[in-house]
Amino acid sequence: MTDSSSWQPPTPYGPPATPPSEQFAAPTGAPGWTPPPRPGLIPLRPLTLGTMLSAAFQVLRRNPRPTFGFALLVNGTITILTLVVVGAVWFFAFTRTLNATESDAATLGAGSIALIILSGLIPVALSIVASAIVQGVISLEVARGTVGEKLRLPGLWRAARGRIGALIGWTLLATAAVIVALVVVSVVVALIIAFGGIAGVVIGVLLAVLFSAGALVAAFWLFTRLSLVPSVLMLERLPLRSALARSWSLTTGYFWKTLGIQLLVVVILQVVTGIISAPLQLILGFGVALINPTGDQTAAIVGFIVIYVLTIAVSIVFGAIAQVVQAATAALIYIDLRMRKEGLDLQLTQFVEARQAGDASITDPYLARAPGSASAGDPLGDGAAWS
What pLDDT, in 10s, does the model give residues 135-156? Predict the structure, then answer.
């Protein structure tokens, strides 16, 4: 057997000899596996569960001002407006009832109750609008972060221009559908109980249980199939009807995955919130007891106000975190499904490579070649570049 140590220098009578150890060596330039590019928030390939969960929370850390800061500002403003408006209505209603004469007390009391109930719709409407706005901004932040871009809030707001109204309309439509369904079921059950006697009570209770179970299943089903509508509205800029069909199409075949990931995120957020808020509540309770050991009434009122304010502040903070993470999760699911079904990862890679090469003319990869949206995906009809 020839050993590589016996190799001799080339002679002038023939080609240079090659050491046996190098005869079968792989060429240095041989192609090998390389990981998918990761210019920003996620690697440009279909996402695993771990990658998706970490990216949803990373959105807060990566660009905190237009994500957590904006959600905190919106939630805080809505909470303050709600407290002021509802508090003023309650104060007016009770003052009016207390100062009423005996003959007008019943009428004014009924009017005050109706006024208080109507005032309760104000925070619901405000929260719907706030949730829609935050969801739209977060969807855009996730899309931009995927290709390594990091915009401030004004830039994200400019990108959202013209789509916030559609997003608010979708949120109002979904809320109205839930309210109408609840009202119809409640009225039917109430009529059966009211006019059916004992048998009506039994039937009404059974129907209420069946309707509740059916409504819960239908709510989970519809929520899952339509959970990508906000991302479609913001990123593909489709009209609402097309966005509904698009979300339905993307989640086909991925229902349980879409539902499971979003439920898992909700559970994680609830557990973390409980772990952090429970000790805070305990500390606040002991703190008030230590500050007011004699049970003074004025100190007790002050302590109650302090606890109430701190509780609201904590709920605003955790509410903002939950809004950002849940909206980011929905946007990541949307991107993942488009990668799996349409090869969006290849389009995103092309976009990143073109930008790195200095080519700024390439169009928005989230609009390009979306099935059934060749014209609707670009409402201006000019293939506007993503700038």
Answer: 888 999 999 989 888 888 888 8
DSSP of 14-35, one letter per residue?
SPPP--HHHHTPPPTT-----P
Distance, in Å, from the CA atom of 316 to the CA atom of 175, rounded to the nearest integer, reads: 22
E strands in the chain: none
Residue 336 to residues 3, 51, 251, 324, Cα–Cα distance (Å): 55, 11, 11, 18
Q: What is the 3-state secondary structure (H, E, C) of 75-93?
A: HHHHHHHHHHHHHHHHHHH
Question: How far apart, in whole angstroms, are the C-alpha atoms of residue 175 and residue 135?
Answer: 15
Contact 329, 266 (CB under 8 A): no
Closest CA to 375 of 225, 262, 237: 237
Q: How many CA atoms lie within 13 A of 262 on its CB side?
A: 25
State pLDDT tens for residues 6-64: 555 554 444 444 444 444 444 444 455 556 667 778 888 999 999 999 999 999 888 88
